[in-house]
Amino acid sequence: MDEINSKQFISVRLDKDLYGVEITYIDSIIVMQNITRVPKAQPYFLGIINLRGEVIPVMSLRRKLGLPDDEFTNVSRILIVKPEPSVAPFGIIVDEVNEVISLDRDEIELINYDEDDTMAGFSAGIGKLGDELINILNIPEIITGNEK
Amino acid sequence: MDVSQYLEIFIDETREHLQSLNEHLLVLEKEPENEATINEIFRAAHSLKGMAGTMGYKKMQRLTHDMENVFSEIRNGQMKATSRLVDVLFKGLDVLEEFLVNIQTDGTEGKTDGQEIISDLNKILESGLGKDDSSASDAKDSASTPADKGEDKPSKDYGKYKFKSLSIDEHEKKAIAKAKLLNLNVIGLTVYIQEYCVLKGARAYMINRSLEEHGEIIKLSPSAQDLEDEKYDYDYSAFVVTKETPQQIINNAISVSEVKEVVADYINLEEKELEKYLNIIKNEEKQSALSMTSGDSGDLKAKTAPSRKQPSKPIANRSVRVDIEKLDVLMNLVSELIIAKNSLVSSSSSLHDQLEIAFYDQIEYLERVTTNLHESVMKVRMVPIENVVNRFPRMIRDLSKKLNKKMELYMTGEETELDRTVIDEIGDPLMHLLRNAADHGLESNEERKNQGKNPVGSIYLDAYQDGNNVVIEVSDDGKGIDVEKIKRKAIDRGTITEEQASRMTDKEIINILFMPSFSTSDKVTDVSGRGVGLDVVKTKIEALGGDIEAKTKLGQGSNFIISLPLTLAIIQSLMVQISTEKYALPLGNIQTVENVTPDEIKMIQGKEVLNLRGNVIPVIRLGEILDCEKSQEAEELVIVVIKKGERLAGFVVDDLIGQQEIVIKSIGKYIDNHKIISGATILGNGEVALILDVNSLV
Fold this sequence. Notes:
The complex is a heterodimer. Chain A has helices spanning 61-64, 118-121, 139-144, and strands spanning 6-14, 17-22, 26-31, 45-51, 54-60, 77-81, 90-94, 96-104, 108-109, 123-129, 132-137. By secondary structure, chain A is mainly beta. A six-stranded mixed sheet of chain A has the order 8-1-2-11-10-9. In chain A, strands 3-6-7-5-4 form a five-stranded mixed sheet. By secondary structure, chain B is α+β, with helices and mostly antiparallel strands. Chain B is 47% helix and 22% strand. Chain B has a six-stranded mixed sheet. In chain B, helix 21 (483-492) packs across helix 23. The longest helix of chain B is centred in the middle third of the chain and has 27 residues, at 324-350.
């Protein structure tokens, strides 16, 4: 496979849909933890956790994307991601982590940007995985952009 | 010689010398005759020149050389330190500082060469020595102090025999006379060390050791401490009391390696003086013989003991320079240790029955050790605020000239210590407050005179420790803050409405000053008034976990009170339970804890208050502010009384968990928390608890 033209993603499930997170953003994947609520924080930030002695904020991706609220199960996971290599990490909660997939660049289609649709900003494109479509998440935009 | 490895030391020491020059020049301006100060200045300039030369910084060397010339004339009493001269010298220091900054950034001195200053200096030098009026009056001044003049005649050139130009103190003369009495020689010598010598301090020490084998050193110039600290060029002078001849002493000293040349000669007192001191010694001996019948002190050592005390080696400088990063690492490790200890404590308490008493003893011991360890590391990181504030007198002097207002800065508590990280950040806010005080706070000299005040304005900077906080107050005796003026300005700018303004207390109005881009100054000056000020100060201080408060009396002055936490990393806290959540309150802010019944809480103007022993304090229900789930109204409320400055407030909590040493961790930038949370901490069981910022809640 061509190194330059393909990228690896972790496919995760959120509600009924598949999402992809580029593997270079991912620091680690951990099981659900006790989350300490932070008062007055943005609604999509559920709070903070202790990850090996470091305090890390955790956000609910469902809330950020305007999906129905989380229900934590024993397959729920927290992806610890870094929007840039040198900045502090944060956690995003997903319903399930599936597998590592590779997508060629031409297998990813950018969706048309629409000013009113903030959700489009959180997407870095739509990938085709067999019959299914996978929404590639734009991690830097998720931490900086405004929710719906 | 490769000097790059000494660059850091050079930069550090140059900064110290420049600071010392700055301070002493300020003193000199006020007391132009202060000899000790002039000597200090001369020494600092001299070391600076030597160091710059060694490191190959030619421009720096050149400028310091010319400045040194001026200092030397001042020292000789040929010139007077006029305000104009001091101005030029200060400018020279600024250029030197510029060089230093450039050296620090790219290793070169930069483009400016200070030529202007050099020519200014030379002009002053020429006119000062010539027919300048001030020097004429100065000549009279120095003539009126013939005692000083008689002692040092530095203008006479003794060539290599530099020791002959040294002035001899009372007690040294006495020692010389005593030596004569015992038929010993007093030999003066000047030692020249090879210029390539790297450890000058050690070399001087070795030479002195070898001299001491044959006699007693009664005088060293520069002092033993300076020699050890390498604060001398390549030569130094000494007086030795010995049985040997000068030639023997020379042979002795030259045998030490890296010594280039030694010159020596007998030192004799004038007949009259010798007699005078001999008489003194005889009288003393009679007295001591009366008081002390036993024990004769015939041998040389005992005889010269009192005179030896002076030049004997002062307590050596027992400190080490450590990179701040290493200290940070150390502090992090201590933090981790405390987390580990906390988790050990918490897991041991769950095993309650199965553990032996001895185990708990050990745990307690561990707790004590970690607490002490933390304290020690913290102390290592503590720096006196002197390091920041010592540049302020100079700044105020410059401001005074610039604004054409006479003012004095009075500082106290410079020795108060703060964490290094805080020290690094606190300089700018303090500078800002001082500039404000100088520009807006103080009235012009005429205005002050008309109001019957001392025409010279006063600015105070006081620092002191208050419990777990350090308080720094910046105050002035100027016109104070005009509350009405702020009110009008705020209404004009739409910051507040007329109606709001009428309801606000003076204190609340003053707090408007801390809002972004608010300036009451009618005109923008060079110094301040652009409105990017107090809000930046406040933000900075809050970022350091501190707080700022303003007080004022119209016509009498204003007072800005900054309080800062002693340390940023680890604090003692009171853990409390609110609903199902745990929160930490910094122990330093807690006054008392009270149990009250719900009916003791009264409503005043729609707000809950508590009458606490005659003190009515507001009651804050933390559960509501923190949006916790409602807990049942208990029969008895636990109220933690918080003190912020002079204000008290009661925080209602559900339960107290206990006192705990906690490590503060940042919750990062992603989460927006409206400042009520100052950080988080990891508890013994791995849970995360939030630390409340009581300053923002009260």
